[in-house]
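Q: What would this complex look like in 3D?
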Amino acid sequence: MTLPRKELFHLPEGVIYLDGNSLGPLPRSVAARVAGTVTDEWGDMLIRGWNDAEWADQPARVGNRIAGLIGAPEGSVTMGDTLSIKVYQALAAALAMRPDRRVVISDSGNFPTDLYMAEGLLRTLGRGHELRVVAPEEVDGAIGEEVAAVMLTEVDYRTGRRHDMSAITAKAHDAGAVMIWDLAHSAGAVPVDMTASNAEFAVGCTYKYLNGGPGAPAFIYVRPDLADSAEPALQGWFGHEAPFAFDIDYRPAPGVERMRVGTPPVIQMTALEEALMVWDGVDMDEVRSAAIALMERFITEVEARCPSLELASPRDPAKRGSQVSFRFSEGYAAMQALIARGVIGDFRAPDIMRFGFTPLYLGEDDVLAAVDVLADVLGNELWRDPAYQKRSRVT
Amino acid sequence: MTLPRKELFHLPEGVIYLDGNSLGPLPRSVAARVAGTVTDEWGDMLIRGWNDAEWADQPARVGNRIAGLIGAPEGSVTMGDTLSIKVYQALAAALAMRPDRRVVISDSGNFPTDLYMAEGLLRTLGRGHELRVVAPEEVDGAIGEEVAAVMLTEVDYRTGRRHDMSAITAKAHDAGAVMIWDLAHSAGAVPVDMTASNAEFAVGCTYKYLNGGPGAPAFIYVRPDLADSAEPALQGWFGHEAPFAFDIDYRPAPGVERMRVGTPPVIQMTALEEALMVWDGVDMDEVRSAAIALMERFITEVEARCPSLELASPRDPAKRGSQVSFRFSEGYAAMQALIARGVIGDFRAPDIMRFGFTPLYLGEDDVLAAVDVLADVLGNELWRDPAYQKRSRVT
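A: Here is my prediction, written as structure tokens for the whole assembly.
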């Protein structure tokens, strides 16, 4: 197979898209598939779609495709809700497995919502749990015998710094703690082997490197040996053993399906299911090699041509996900100027310009063209245009 | 305005749809709107859609449309997740408002997921809360000074029996309890006046009478005087005061927006937003009168022509939502036979045949034609066909 596979994506003319780490582009076949679900399934089948179009099984079916991309076995992943909800579920189940421990370790490189959800859960539990947020490099030293769970995002959303999943999981297990990985910036970006990692839980979103569309449903993985005993805090009817029996008492479904909650978002899930077709026949190792080649070329060119930018990502590609970040004091305005010229990355306060590298639809020519624009914006200080200084609500 | 407005809906030829209480049909304009969101917004705007297509504000915008249908003021309703999640949020916030009380009252006519989610929350709280599930007619007597919250679904999903919202809310308040209403079978079905009811919280789904499509997002209402102090248990980044500041500490957004959790499902939300256009200029009192006329005609005809069916719904239309249920021991097979002949209702164990009445797209001619088929199925025992006895996974 040859990368990139640009023909599978709808890529607007005149745009070089380096923001697939935030929202992946539209795979071409999704529009027709979604239209079919709206008109032929919802429209024509009406309520019968639950059986005839197999809506009820879709979260398990899509979960199996995700499992294939994160080194997890069939039946160990299910879909639904948002990443925030899945973090809450994983942490609640983890803490129920360690009733005598009261400490949760996370790091300041975690995505904020993971920390917010954890805080909310700990307050709801009301049993004196403590969320200890340490610097990413201090995680290892923070894991002791009092720790119930370690909850980390593998790849830092700002800098792309990548944790060593196997080493940290082993450390957590040595201390008797449960390990939860957030794979938001990993799934579809770097090779992940959940089975080899031996971690108990993983969660992730699907609208970044998996191109599932804005607000695509999240995933949750539960290690198979725990899936029949993990205790769901969010006991929804679609996680019931027999949702359509309408029993008054809750009995969790066997396996990871107990982590489903309410009615699945069928239209949104269909967009994701179709979007995942672009991974057919793709080897994650090949994607990773191609991404590293693109990133190395980008770094070399930027450092040669844009001396005002300072690399914020780890220089060693093995310690980095699939994005490269540079610091620049006028990064916000510079990013606006770039976007106005068709090179789309994004900005994270206070001074980080982020660029995502996604070999499914990006080639070396794109990288070189992007650097040309970046060098022009910086060399000629085009970011000084007042129009680029105005902050929009969402960056 | 004249009802029905069939021209606004995609109604498959040969089908009389009496299951809008389970999944509403497709409003015609939704397909084009969804296609536009997929191709013109996600496809062409990519990440810029959050600003340029105003995705970030959509839950508030859609919430305002729902508010208009449930007698709630602007800014008091927001959208997202599923009804199960919204039940959890409302109950958690309610219990935080009554820290010294330990009893939650619900009834056996509540939809099971509401009870499951409540149980899960109470176990997570671990503070000895008790969920007391009483018979619907015993709710009033069960509300005492020890009750923290009363959590009910206004209209029973099986029989259509309707609680007296104002009276029960007043009773709850007299006892010092917080009131939570589930409007899943009320919004778009019966006139609701949240402001007049004075209840603290309401939640609901949007894929039934609001025709939002399979898995459409849920809504939550918080009484305006409480919205700035209600404590979110599910502290997601989209409920943060400044989601895109990526602060490490959670600060709830002002008002009901704090009840947002993760990234909103933009495609699914767009389908709902467009679906709500069919309510433009519609008077809920007119809808209600038309629904009652259809239901009365249906009951009269069925009782005259199908003596083996026994009315399971309240005979007094004022005590009933917008559905009529009949008991029949062979109800499952009879419903399958009906569906095979294009009359779509549904079945709830052990013996309930449900029929929803939705005057936006149903007229008296539909009701009479449906009864003709029902009388044929029952009079000629067409349900005896073995094909109709086989249970499908989802009814």
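A: To summarize the key features: The longest strand of chain A covers residues 147-153. The domain at 283-388 of chain A is CATH 3.90.1150.10 (Aspartate Aminotransferase, domain 1).
Q: Very helpful, thank you.
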